Amino acid sequence: MQKLLPRFLLLALASGLALTAQAQNEPIKFGKLDPQDMDEKNFAADSAAEAVVLCDYGVSRFNVANGDFKIVFERVTRIKILKKSAYDRATVEVPLYHQGTSEEKLSTLRGFTYNMVNGQLVKEKLASENTFREEKSANVTVRKFTLPNVRVGSVIEYAYTVNSDFLFNFQNWQFQESIPVRWSEYRASIPEYFDYKMLMQGYEPLAISEHPTGQTQYTISTGGSFDDYGNRRSASSQTVSASVTNHRWVMKDVPAFRNEPYMTTSRDFIARIDFELAGTKWPNQGYHNMANSWNKINEELLTEESFGNQAKHASFLKEEIAALKAKHAGNPAALTAAIRHLVHHSVKYNDQDRLYATTTTRRAYDQHNGSAADVNLLLIGALRDAGLTAHPVILSTRDHGRVNTLFPLLSNFNYVVAHVALPDNKEMLVDATEEAMPCGNLPGRCLNGVGRLLLPNAAQSRWVDLAPLTRFIDYRKVQLQLDDKGGYTGQVHQEYGGYLGAHHRSRLVKLGEKKFMEELAKGHEGWDIPKYAFKEKETYTAPLSLDYELTSAGNEQAADMLYINPMRHFSDSKNPFLHEDRRFPVDFGALMDETNLVTLALPAGYAVEEMPKPLVVDLPDNGGRFMYSISPGENSLQIMTRMNLRKTVYSAEEYAALRDFYSRLLAKQAEQIVLKKKS
């Protein structure tokens, strides 16, 4: 078995190599199309893909303007369109950072669409009216453009340059896409004055990794002081000769990244390289540390107006908080739950996950609407006003990506929850965005490794495990009466507990009872549900309970032999793990527990001719178990199945066993019971 590359690899700036390097040929020339790129025969191997990246080539280098270093990033990309579903790849977005009066600028934007028309190659130019500008966030503007007349068989090509004053915002590079990539190359020429941490991740090998050094002259500013971006102020100028490291990374024939069930986000696993400015060292100057530390992040956030200051107090709720304190005196856990309930009903979560408040907590309260940060920073302030010890925990949601604890990057976080210290060294993580989650359980989107607890004394701040205390719990007790045509009538008692309970309570609120039951019946061919009743709809600490009657018609006539499979109504029919291999973990978020108890009353005059054998399947290292048992009673059968997963995350090395586990349990639940009419 091929050993996988590590997910993260810190690359150091190369040193001690040759001082001069031969200039490498560029892998692509804009506007010079290879005729083979228009020949469909050359894409037979990619016929399953909607498109293919023929070449993606980027270069980052430093220029000096007015005595200060600037970053220049140039890119050329060429893509072959194979299916209509890839037409949206003709629309490209380029994010540009801005702060204060400084902004990154897009220049030399060019683009062509190539098509074969009556045996002739026709190319159409990107028109200026097909370029757009969009404000993405407070600091990011997106320049968007759409290439013309794209069809199946087209080749699209675009090139642009980004000029940046922000030395900390060195361009990252992604080698892998959701479509195959024939060639992806990134070059970065970095003078000795800049120390960048380089983080390579993914499972695809580099075809080329070169880092020769050379000498370049710059006329730069010297002396003076630094601004927040590593540039100098009040400086004189001089011409210097600097050592420059010329990095070159190439991946070729990169397979399309394949999304899989039970994963966080593709950003966690896709082949890419990211940069962070750790420090600068100018001539005759000491090293200037630019990198964040966890202590710096801690202090920055707690003094930030849109973070720490919004979590200090909730004085506008003082009357409600005082009443709750009196009601729950001496019970901090109950008081925490009551404060959470108050905040949830005061500010409705608007489905936006944010680290910083989008407004003041008072304004969010007045508008009864806000982001996750607006809700949970208000929660922390209210908990503090209630006399509880509450502090923020910052984290990254599953769709935002895992946090690498080795690298203090504030951009890795996009969410905040409350940490509450309870008596007897107990603690609780609290989120007020989703009422259906019991207090002390984070929403499923937050189950993503670890979070950082921010304390007033930064040295005491620490990582906290986000692993949940509850599970996905699915319990079902079924009583069925089988008739001589193979039809069923019966009653089902269903309980959805833990995270599954929260999920279905949310669906119930969204859909209503009638629509909820219609969707339940849709998944079972021939089912009719004439009567149903929900219980514990708003008792969030108890499972959501559902009782219903069902009928399922059989054949038109009675049969001497009946071939039945009642478990097909109450189990999955497909293995979620379709592919034979998987290169990254399976992450369920929480433990899983599923139980079915089925009593099947047989029609009069029939006896069991054949029935499945009991089965127990164990995952290695006590990772989980599936049990199936069946036992005959007087004119009845009792079937019990239980599936228990004892780990939230299974490594890529454990994937084969997990896939086989699911295959075996589904095969067992698909086995038929054979009944024979007595003579």
TrEMBL record:
Residues 78-221 form the DUF3857 domain. InterPro entries: DUF3857 (IPR024618). It comes from the Bacteria. Keywords: Signal. Residues 1-23 form the signal peptide. Pfam families: DUF3857. This is DUF3857 domain-containing protein. It comes from Hymenobacter citatus.
